[in-house]
Write a structure and sequence with these properties.
This protein has 517 residues and is of the alpha/beta class. Helix content is 49%, strand content 16%. α1 crosses α21, α4 packs parallel to α5 and α6 runs antiparallel to α16. Bound molecules: zinc ion (ZN). The site of zinc ion has 8 residues, from loops.
């Protein structure tokens, strides 16, 4: 059966329509309350003794693509209670319909709130304008703030991690419900005490997944001594990789000497560099001679007498403090190498011309530096092997752990030189790979033998960390829970933070992130 739409069905519940009109800015509906009485906010007694009328202007849901304004003819009542201090009060409505002092109906306010949660301030404001209920950026943020953070279901399995407000400057803490895959709290810092306070309010938590930084482990142990802690698998893998990179960093002196010996091609050196290189070779020769004598049991005094070098030099050499590294000199050019390479590739081979143009870019060095570079380039172009410089520890660690078939020919030579010259690094690499295999395959039984084998390797400090955090590492291998999804939530959080255009105060951010998830 069809029925005509009654005007009262358009306006919020509890109001009757007196008249409608429209102007340039939209539809205006004059409404009055249906009730005959209201409760005094002072004493709670109902009164029907009208004192006076007044008008409230309210924004409501738009209709047929036009904004709607309600003009509510509201009343003031006299309070009849003898002992009540309020003589007169403004009438109150069901807050599900209209809150005291509100300038929007509750149903519009809900939409404004959701829009602000979903889109943040400015994008929400522009969508709201299109939807015909213009609200400002500030209003949107105010609505989010007023309504506060959505409540969450008390979690039993949580992941906790830190996240950067601003990289390297300010950090907060994020807590996720791993079962419901939702962010449930943002804390203003990453102090153990702050996390502890939050966790103590949630005694029902049974599992805490966290990274291996000590702070959260301590907080969880104090707040929830019964809970099982799970070291985060993602962080474990990451820490293991870092441990190998550290081992490489500590071995750099040895690495430089094996790479230098293997890859410097004297034919490619300029005359100035060749003089340095010859000096370097002479020093290496002396080093070898003196170390040989010492190995043969000769005391320092004897070595001094036989080689003619001073006591100080001999001592230095025996301590390994003069095992020098030959490096090609090009420091002042470092900043301009990219530009130079591009010019060279484009056919600009005239050193003095290049030098003049470099000076215009702020290069302070003299012509000789550039001509030496050009000479070396010319030779390198002719010969098949370029002059290799020792890669950084981080690069080397990456080269050594990447598959062989991804390396260039020069990289393969470098890696091979390191592997044969520094066998302890090969061992360390195997140990790290074995650990990552244990985590990946959840092979708890392999952990104990691994610890025994790894304890005396180059990555011993990583191994000690694992031993200290043993229970949580065991749990990481056996438990299905991991912080991996917390990482995902952090990504979402960063996205939301960016949308807030620097206005990401914690309460707003929290309301949006939790409201969204
Ligand atoms: Zn009263």
């Amino acid at each position: 059966m069809h029925r005509a739409v009654r005007l009262s069905a358009i306006v919020p519940r509890g109001f009757a329509v007196d008249s409608t009109s429209s102007d340039d800015s939209g539809t205006v509906i004059l409404v009055r309350p249906l009730s005959t009485a209201s409760r005094c906010p002072g004493c709670g007694q109902s009164s029907d003794r009208i004192h006076s009328h007044y008008r409230r202007r309210l924004a409501d849901l738009p209709m047929a693509g036009r904004p709607v304004r309600l003009i509510l003819v509201a009343r003031r009542f006299r309070c009849a209670a003898v002992l009540c201090e309020r003589r007169v009060f403004a009438e109150r409505f069901d807050t599900g319909v209209l809150a005291p002092w509100a300038r929007r109906t509750t149903r519009l306010d809900h939409i404004v709130h959701h829009l602000a949660l979903a889109l943040g301030g400015r994008p929400a404001a522009s969508l709201a304008r299109r939807l015909m209920f213009p609200v400002s950026n500030d209003t949107l943020l105010r609505v989010v703030r007023r309504r506060g953070s959505p409540r969450f279901v008390p979690p039993t399995v949580v992941g906790i991690d830190d996240w950067a407000w601003r990289r390297n400057q300010r950090y907060g803490t994020i807590i996720c419900d791993l079962e419901r895959r939702k962010t449930i709290a943002l804390l203003p810092d990453r102090e153990a005490a702050t996390a502890q306070r939050w966790l103590s309010d949630q005694p029902q938590i049974t599992i805490v997944a966290r990274d291996r930084g000590g702070g959260y482990a301590l907080a969880a142990a104090k707040a929830l001594p019964q809970a099982i802690q799970v070291a985060d698998r993602w962080h474990l893998m990451e820490n293991a990789s870092h441990a190998f990179a550290d081992a490489v960093r500590k071995s750099m002196r040895q690495i430089r000497s094996v790479i230098g010996a293997a890859t410097i091609n004297p034919d490619l050196l300029t005359s100035a560099e060749r003089i340095q290189y010859e000096g370097y070779l002479r020093r290496e020769e002396v080093n070898a001679e003196i170390q040989g004598l010492a190995k043969g049991g000769a005391p320092i005094k004897e070595i001094v007498r036989r080689t003619g070098h001073s006591r100080g030099v001999v001592r230095k050499i025996l301590r390994g403090q003069r095992s020098d590294v030959f490096r090609v000199r090009e420091s002042s050019l470092e900043l301009y190498l990219q530009w130079l390479d591009a010019e060279w590739a484009a056919g600009q081979r005239n050193a003095s011309d290049l030098w003049r143009r470099l000076k215009r870019q702020g290069f302070r060095g003299c012509l000789r530096v550039v001509s030496e570079w050009a000479t070396r380039r010319r030779r390198a172009d002719k010969a098949d092997g370029a002059l290799t410089r020792t890669p950084s520890a981080r690069t080397l660690a990456r080269l050594m752990t990447n598959g062989r078939d991804t390396l260039t020919k020069a990289e393969t030579v470098t890696v091979a030189a390191v592997e044969s010259g520094v066998p302890l690094l090969v061992e360390a690499r195997e140990i790290i790979a074995a650990f990552q295999g244990i985590i990946r395959k959840k092979a708890l039984a392999d952990l104990e033998p691994w610890l025994d084998r790894a304890r005396s390797s180059l990555v011993a400090s990583f191994v000690n960390g694992v031993i200290k955090d043993r229970a949580a590492v065991n749990a990481a291998i056996t438990s299905p829970w991991s912080n991996g999804q917390t990482e995902g939530q952090i990504t979402k959080l960063k996205l939301v933070k960016r949308q807030m255009y620097g206005r990401g105060k914690l309460d707003l951010l929290q309301a949006r992130v939790i409201g969204l998830a």
